[in-house]
Amino acid sequence: MSFRTSLTGLNASFAKLDVTNNNISNANTTGFKKSHATFSDIYSSSMSQSPSSIVGQGAFSTGTTQQFTQGSLRSSNNMLDLSIQGQGFFSLKPEPNSTERIYTRAGAFSVTNERYVVDANGNFLQSFAVNTDGSINQAQMETMKLPDLTADPAATSRITAGLNLPSSASILNVPFNKEDPSTYNESTTFDIYDSAGNAHITSIYFIKSSSATENDPTHRWMTKTFIGNNELSPALMQAKDTEGNELWVDNIGRVKTEPQVQAIKDSTMGSYASFSITAATTPAAGDSLAVTIKGLDNGNNHIVLYTTDKPETAVESTAGMVLALNNDPQFSQEYQAISGAENNILIKRVNGSSILQADQAGFDTAAVISGDTVAVTIQGLSPDGNEKTITFTASATKTALETATLVRDKLNADTDFTQTYNAYLAKGSVIIEAKGNTSADPTKIAVTEVNLASSETGNPNTRSVNVFKHAELEISVSPSLGALISDGKLGFTDAVPFYIDENGNETSNISDTLFTFSPYNLEQGEIIFDATDGKFSYPNEAMQFSTINFNNGSEPVNLEIDLSENTTQYTTPFIMRSFSQNGFTSGMLNSLNITDTGTIHANYSNGQKVVAGQLALTSFLNNNGLQQIGNASYTETADTGALQIGAAGANGFGKISNSSLESSNVDLTTEMINLIVTQRNIQANSKALETNSQFQKIIMDELT
After folding, report:
1. CATH code, 158-235+524-581
2. Which helix H or strand E contains 23, and what residues bound it?
3. Residue 128, Cβ neighbours under 10 Å: how many?
4. How buried is 534 (Cβ within 10 angstroms: 0-12 exposed, 13-18 middle, 19+ buried)?
5. Domain chopping of the chain, boundaries
6. Which pTM value belongs to this model?
7. What is the rounded CA–CA span in Å between residue 346 and residue 387?
8. Is 485 helix (H, G, I), strand (E, B) or coil?
9. Rounded mean pLDDT, 340-369
10. Which SS3 state, helix, strand or coil, does residue 668 take?
11. Max CA distance (Å), the chain
12. 645: which strand partners?
């Protein structure tokens, strides 16, 4: 029995020796983790034996356990030599699309000719995917593949710059000439790129146009942008409030954050839109319509005079005509048969292009019985957003008459219809007060619609509209029978430009059919600074430019320049604080940069940096459950517990160090001591075995 016990001791000692020798032999193996042999005693008994009489029967090896302690790091010259400082394993696959996974801490990696990152055994390194915007998607793992060795060029579409313009700069009122430095205050030059990667010299010139005043507490500069010798044309800028909402001005001057669309209503008597009558008509003989413009100063304060002083008589109507007798008035006034009565009228919309629009066929405009109204529509003047007041003085010349009402009556061609308009006097004026910096172009006026009120041939009525400030604009309309509906279309197609200066915004031309216009920057290419603190105040977004065609085969470019982030006007000299653009020429891959979180950046010769991916680390609840497969690598088993995947430096994972490798955690001194101890154990067990053998020989000799 003792002979067998000695043999188990020898076997256990040799197992220990094997483990120690393996540790010593892998002392220089990258990522190797030392092992430790474990043993157990052999014990047996029977029912007839007492516990005190039982003797052990030796020992046996129960296996080995690995020590996953941190190994020391040694430097290298290879950026793809990686080590983990802390918990975790690199994740690999034997093939790019394989479902099998391999885990290791040996981080000696290289790149294949297909740009895959592999270890010394050809296993493919795994990483987190990269989104199109360059961000990391940690919900998706993929085989690590470096980007192309060359980077394609990209055209410049956006420039962001921060600079300081000196507040002491002089105001220049001379014609700009980029070749003459005396015509601008400051300038800066840089390169932009077309889609083929060609560089183009671009210059921005800054001209101070005005300083702060009591009425305008801002400093204003004009910018001129050139690519070579070609000046870029700035686009109009949509005005926005401090929250980024677009600002619009409606038809009565109110500022809104959404455009208001108000189209002209249809009318059978004519409207701003064209129309035609296909039914046969017999036009009556009559005179022509005359419109006379004597002068124009569409200045700040406007006065509108309204006068009627002639009797009117209805005329023959022809077949196929529909008389629109009930207009939809914008404001109404009751004229009573009381001499000298004064009444106030509230104007909701002012539009001088059709100041006296009213279809007067079908009702009396004599001394009207109280309760009936006459419709007057005023349209076209630049609104200031306030309500207006018109005062009319009406004096009756005779007893009030009942009014006639005809709505869309169709008359036969041979039917005579005569309606008498009795004379009355009505005079008044409208004073339109200028609001803020409201202005109007004094060189144009538009009459978009003239309604022909019927009258007796040879006895015309007169409508006069005077809009004046320093000079007088008078429009006289003689509503005698000129061009009738059967003669075709009647209208004026000119337009009235309108501008608004609130917050430095410019408007486009007001529409004749949609009573809405949007404010834009007052001057294209203008930048504005607050006089109180010198900070940039407008435009609060990038300036847009018209499409650039380089005429060299490259694609057209839409360029925008944003100066809003870090541009000031201080007393310090001109300086460019920051500059960036999104264009670049082609480039070659120069180097890789790997952060301690495992993010890999590819650096190109054109200055571009591309995120190639982020290394994925793994860990297990029980590392000793891993199955060794050689090459300092492991596979997962049922004993490892749940797999955990994450990024370096987060959730308990260690950080990654590039250009370094983790050495074996074998301590040679300790292993040499273990070797000596194991040697003594072997010698002792051998001596016990020898002693047992000698005792057996003595016993055999005695027996013989």
Report:
1. 2.60.98.20
2. helix 2-25
3. 21
4. middle
5. 2-69+666-703, 77-149+588-659, 158-235+524-581, 288-492
6. 0.51
7. 7
8. helix
9. 38
10. helix
11. 173
12. 618
If one compares 390 and 111, the residue with the highest pLDDT of the two is 111
Which residue bears the tokens 């105040």? 537
Q: What's the token pair of residue 135? A: 């961000």
Helix (H, G, I), strand (E, B) or coil at 504: helix
Q: Which residue has the tokens 């009930």?
A: 326
Tell me how far apart the alpha carbons of residues 153 and 196 are, in angstroms, rounded to a whole number.
Answer: 6
Residue 41 is inside which H or E element, if any? strand 35-41
Cβ contacts of residue 175 below 8 Å, gap of 6+? 183
- In the DSSP assignment, the letter for residue 354 is T
Task: Supply 167's token pair.
Answer: 């507040």
C-alpha span between 115 and 610 (Å, rounded): 15
Reported as a pLDDT band with limits 50, 70 and 90, residue 460 is low
230-241 residues labelled b (16+ CB within 10 A) or e (exposed): ebbebbebbbbe
Q: How many CB atoms lie within 10 A of CB 201?
A: 12
What is the rounded distance in angstroms from the CA atom of residue 503 to the CA atom of residue 239?
A: 8
Q: Whole-angstrom Cα distance, residue 542 to residue 580? A: 13
- 608-644 pLDDT, tens digit per residue, is 899 999 999 999 999 999 999 999 999 999 999 999 9
Phi, psi of 669 (to 5 degrees): -60, -45
- Residue count of the chain, please give it: 704
Interval 396-451: pLDDT, tens = 444 444 443 333 333 344 444 444 434 333 344 444 444 444 343 343 433 334 44
641 neighbors 111 (Cβ within 8 angstroms): no
Distance CA 61, CA 13 (A): 9
DSSP string for residues in 604-639: ETTS-EEEEEEEEEEEES-GGGPEEEETTEEE--TT
CB burial of 138-177 (b: ≥16 within 10 Å; e: otherwise) equals eeebbbbbbbeeebebbbbbebbbbbbbbbebeeeeeeee
Q: What is the pLDDT of residue 44?
A: 59
Facing residues of 440 across strands? 498
Tally Cβ neighbours within 10 Å of residue 595.
15
Report residue 114 as tokens: 């297909």
Q: Tell the residue number behind the tokens 């370094």, with chain if given.
A: 660
**Tens of pLDDT along 576-603?**
999 999 999 999 999 999 999 999 999 9
Residue spans of beta strands (DSSP E) within 297-424: 302-308, 312-313, 331-333, 341-347, 374-376, 388-395, 420-421
